[in-house]
Amino acid sequence: MSHYDIVILGAGAAGMMAAIEAGKRGRKVLIVDHAADPGEKIRISGGGRCNFTNVNATTATGRERFLSQNPRFALSALARYTPEHFIALVRSYGIAFHEKTLGQLFCDGPSTQIINLLVQEMAGAGVTLKLRSSLERAEKTEAGFALVLSDQAVSCEKLIVATGGKSIPKMGATSLGYQLAAQFGLRVTETRPALVPLTFAEQVLEPLRELSGVSTNAVVSHGKTRFEEALLFTHRGLSGPAILQVSSYWREGDAIAIDLVPGLDMLAALRQARKATPKLAIQTVLASHLPKRLAQLIGEELDLPGMIGDFSDAKFEKVVAAVKAWTLKPVGSEGYRTAEVTLGGIDTRDLDSKTMEARQVPGLHFIGEVVDVTGWLGGYNFQWAWASGFAAGQAA
Ligand code: FDA
C-alpha cells in the first residue's frame, strides 16, 4: 500500500489549488480524479475563456455575493487568498486576460491556459496526479485514512474532498463528496441547481418561443434582490446572466419581475412620443427601446390598436406595467443538466473556516463547490475554489 501525506479527491479548481499549496510545503500529495483530464469544468467555463476571478470578490459588496446558510463562513479564506493572488499567478505565466464587465476577468485565449498553469504548478510542487481512478472505499484509521481506489490501495494522513457539485453529470459530476460527508457524520444542507435557466408553463412559453435567440438588457428581480444584466429568450424558457443570477434566489411558487427598459422613465418616454410622433402605433414606439420582435410581441399582447397620439395616460400605464414590471411565475429550472453550480452542500457548521477541516473528524477537509458556499455568476465560484483550496493546502 502506498502512503501519502495527503490524498485529494477531485482534480478540479479547488483540488488542484490545494495540491499546489500542500506540495509547495513539502507534503507528499496524491490527487485523484475519475476523469481522463484534470479541470474539465475550467475548460468549458466562461464560454471557453474561463472567467477565472472577479476583482470585486473581496470588496465589501463582493463579500455579500457568496450564498450560504452562514455567509460569514467564506470570508476568512477569501481574505487570505484574494483575486490579486490569482491574478499574480496568471500574470506570472504570461496569460493574457481582460475585464469583460462587472469586474469579471476572462482569458483572452482558451481556458486550457489556466488548466496548464495549474498542472505545471502541481508538477513543480511534486504532486502526483492520478486520472481515470475513483474511490471505492474510505475508512478512518488511527494514523489517518485508508482508501481503496479503483486500481490501488493507499493510506494517507489527511484527506481533502474536492469533488465539486452535482451540476452537469455528463461531465463527471457525482455525489461522492456528499456521500463521504454523510459517512463521516457531517451534515449536508439542501442542495439545488443554481445559476440555471428557468422554465415556464406551456401557456406562458408558447408566445415567447418566437423570441428564441433575442437578448436584451433587463433588471430581473426576486423580492429585493435584483440583477441588471442580459436576459435571453430561449425555446425552453428564459436564460442569460440576469436569469441565471436570480435562479440562485428563486424558489418554487415564487414570481420574478422583469424591467425590460432599465433606467428609462417609460411613462415620460411615451408622453414624449405622443407629442413628437402621434401617428405611430405602440409597437413602433416600443421598438425604439426594445428589440423589434420583443416590442412586436408586447404590442400584440397589450392589444392596444390605434395611433399613440390618441392614447390616454391610463393606456400608457398599462404599457408601463408590461415593460417595467412584467411578472412571471417560473415552474422550475433546467436542473443539474445545465446548472453552472450547486447551491448548498457540506454544512459549514461542521467545518473550520480557516482550514476547511471537519470539526469532528481531524484530517478530513472539504473544499470548493461541494461546500455550502455558492458565488454569484462572474468569477466568484472560481475565487471560492482557489481560496478554499489554498486554505486547506496550507493547513493539511
Ligand atoms: P470541480 O467540479 O471543478 O471539480 C471536481 C472534480 O472532481 C472534477 O474534476 C470531477 O471529475 C471530480 N470528481 C467528481 N466525482 C468524482 C468521483 N466520484 N471520483 C473521482 N473524481 C471525481 N465559475 C466561475 O467562477 N467562472 C466561470 O466562468 C464559470 N463558468 C462555468 C461554466 C459552466 C458550464 C459550469 C458548469 C460551471 C462554471 N463555473 C464558473 C462554476 C465553476 O466551474 C465551479 O464552481 C468550479 O469548477 C468548482 O470547483 P471544484 O474544484 O469545487 O469542482
Q: What are the salient characteristics of this protein?
A:
alpha+beta; 7-stranded mixed sheet; 23% strand; FAD/NAD(P)-binding domain; Elongation Factor Tu (Ef-tu), domain 3; binds dihydroflavine-adenine dinucleotide; 396 residues; 7-stranded antiparallel sheet; 2 domains
Describe the protein in words.
There is one protein chain. The protein has 396 residues and is an alpha+beta fold. It folds into 2 domains: 2-192 and 341-395, FAD/NAD(P)-binding domain, CATH 3.50.50; 198-333, Elongation Factor Tu (Ef-tu), domain 3 (Beta Barrel), CATH 2.40.30.10. 31% of the residues lie in helices and 23% in strands. The protein is built from 13 helices and 21 strands. The strands form 5 sheets. Strands 1, 2, 7, 8, 9, 10 and 20 form a 7-stranded mixed sheet that branches. It has a 7-stranded antiparallel sheet with strand order 17-16-13-14-15-12-18. It has a 3-stranded antiparallel sheet with strand order 3-6-5. Strand 5 and strand 6 form a beta hairpin. Helix 1 runs parallel beside helix 13 (380-395) and helix 9 (266-276) packs across helix 12 (313-324). The two termini are 21 Å apart. Bound molecules: dihydroflavine-adenine dinucleotide (FDA). The site of dihydroflavine-adenine dinucleotide (FDA) has 37 residues, from helix 1, helix 2 and helix 13. The site of dihydroflavine-adenine dinucleotide has 37 residues, from helix 1, helix 2 and helix 13.
